[in-house]
């Protein structure tokens, strides 16, 4: 991505917290630079508060128009498959009026790019995109100003096209961006929000654009962290305890030490075997004889929900309207249900990897991380060195899904690089990836709801434990409602191992519970589940996406269970409104569920790259089948029992439904999240379809064959 | 140590290596061909797929001694004279990837079975690709890419 910049020497940068822009510009050569920050500074303020430290009130990205007329965008965001390497370039190219191919993205390198808190939460397009477009618009204005001086034409007569400023009265009177940037070092700070293009003026934004990293990825040329090989580098394998919370009581390294060329690091509980070949280091590790004291917690994947409820903190009411007592009084039918969701692994195909090199007082780390800037601070703290001495470079990431927001592998790599004095690569095995994962937390949702004789919901009392607030407050038009959240969507001490953000954190659990409960009420009222939703909705966007999905699906009203196996669900995530309809086939003998078809409609405001947005919807639907049907972490006394893809089953080709997607044309509205929304529906849409097929209701994810059979028997 | 000779991406290679070492790591470290990826180490995922005598194999489970005298092709060997193989082009055209980590294994698995079954049906493709895992959810597009490539190739590779 930015190989030609790797050799630049940044040691003369004296800035305490981040690279000094002027220093950078001195190094990076001539051109026109536009520096800009996010307009939505509330995100920063929040983060500053959360981290309890001052973050630079600095410019969040910048772009350079070079002497060759090519544009470089430097952003702290990273590419992990979600496609912003393409869509952000589209936004910049359109606003600047340059060819899409002439925009180069430099991403996530903490020496080259300005501070960014991390790539997660579907925030790149929502918050970074608008600022980037504004910078593009400003850049275009600077170019017109410069052209006005050079061509001696008043600015009002000048316009731009394909990297050229021209006189609108005489198109032959023109000058290229390359010429304008030649020999100049112009730095502009963007302080006011310049006028960006109207949707009617878009040439590149809103048009489907293929992934721009595809060529590198189909030829094997794309570099991931594990592909970084440095002279003299050692591959490290680290001794792990077999169980979370175990203590090393005895270790015998004598056999491991006999392996030719092996280097052994033994510092307290931290034992690593290093070799110039990773497979030989692995063999050496297998020769380590270690004895651990394993704790007996008695907690496992069956009794975890009782344990979590017992350990729950006090709830916080996050949304409330009307009077629950009144709602209960008005209800003809009351429904009280509990929904359960187990732990899920992120399982990116690329496990956590880092390569660390220490030269003098400078540390450089290549790493598969969604949070390069926080990683920089973590490394500085680990090595007790100033943050400015640390450079994190994220090459392409082989998936992240939230799991690569944690940087344990980076700390391990820098620690070993320091201890050995050599560059070190730490690449977790699949087993380590499962064992060390920050799982999507197990969670419980309890709902008490009621409907009147007209099929209107009068009561909604919602309690969510451990899935957090995201997606919890109800959007149905319910006069008396309350949402109480116990504990955050991740973290917390009640879990037997680390938990963290997993694609659309919390919302998968919350939407499974809410949309199942809605369906239960619709079935009791003998009302078609689409009609029931529409009857209880005022949200125009939600109504719109439901109708769009229903039309494409060819929905014919019928109360469930109709025997057809059709399910419906809707929700919101990251500012996007989304609805899906699924068709399933249930094998009543085996309990096996095959999802035959999914139609999904979403309103995400302006879809910057409709192709990229469609790919993300498909990805959400496919990945979501996993947590809906099979994915579940089994554990016992802190021992993770699923450590590879043999027992932890992720979606396969043979699971694939026919996927049809609709993106609502809403280009005048600001762009919203795309990488997460559709995945939130997959639990509920499948649960509701199973009910429609069989009359059996599933209250726990995943809906594996065993649970489906149990539900069928209960029925 | 063994003296292992084999053809790699059309070129003769001779290595002094422990015959029990796995092909995956020798390719990636000794030979610097990093297009072949580690995914699970147990042949469950297919990220490390390479071709040996045109058959797709999981290089994480292949010993060097079994490569003796064989013809190995990795993803780096598929592009010929700057021209992408039709499967590679189809993956690009169909956006049949996201993070791209499973992509080399997907392409080489498809290459291998298209050689035996040049005109596969939709369900043939699903069956043949089912042991290759993708976490991003590019499956639908991967199937389309293979279908389209098989049509373009008309039986030739």
Topology record:
The complex is a heterodimer of chains A (715) and B (157).
Chain A lengths: L20 H8 L2 E6 L5 H10 L9 E5 L5 E5 L8 H13 L6 E5 L16 H28 L6 E4 L2 E4 L2 E7 H5 L3 E5 L24 H6 L14 E5 L8 E6 L1 H4 L5 E5 L2 E6 L2 H9 L2 E5 L10 H8 L4 E6 L2 H7 L2 E9 L11 E7 L2 E6 L4 H12 L6 E4 L14 H13 L3 E4 L2 H6 L7 E9 L5 E9 L14 E7 L20 H18 L4 H7 L4 H14 L12 E8 L2 E11 L6 E11 L6 H20 L5 E2 L2 E2 L17 E6 L18 H13 L5 E2 L3 H10 L1
Parallel strand pairs in A: 1-8, 3-4, 9-19, 15-29, 17-18, 21-22, 25-28
Antiparallel strand pairs in A: 1-2, 2-3, 5-6, 6-7, 9-12, 10-13, 11-12, 14-22, 15-20, 16-17, 16-19, 20-21, 23-24, 24-25, 26-27
Helix pairs in contact in A: 3-4, 11-12, 14-18, 17-18
Chain B lengths: L1 E7 L2 E7 L5 H8 L18 E4 L2 E4 L12 E3 L12 H8 L9 H14 L5 H8 L9 H15 L4
Parallel strand pairs in B: 1-5
Antiparallel strand pairs in B: 1-2, 3-4, 3-5
What does this structure look like?
The complex is a heterodimer of chains A (715) and B (157). Chain A has three domains: 3-219, Aldehyde Oxidoreductase, domain 4, CATH 3.30.365.10; 227-294 and 352-427, 2-Layer Sandwich (Aldehyde Oxidoreductase, domain 4), CATH 3.30.365.10; 304-344 and 439-714, Aldehyde oxidase/xanthine dehydrogenase, molybdopterin binding domain (Aldehyde Oxidoreductase, domain 4), CATH 3.30.365.10. Chain A is flat. Mean pLDDT of chain A is 91; it is low at 1-19 and 47-58. Chain A contains 19 helices and 29 strands. Chain A has 715 residues and is of the alpha+beta class. Chain B is an alpha+beta fold. Chain B folds into two domains: 2-77, Ubiquitin-like (UB roll); 86-153, Orthogonal Bundle (DNA polymerase, domain 1), CATH 1.10.150. Chain B has helices spanning 23-30, 86-93, 103-116, 122-129, 139-153, and strands at 2-8, 11-17, 49-52, 55-58, 71-73. A five-stranded mixed β-sheet of chain B has the order 2-1-5-3-4, covered by helices on one side. At the A-B interface, helix 6, helix 8 and helix 17 of A face helix 1, helix 2, helix 3, helix 4 and helix 5 of B.
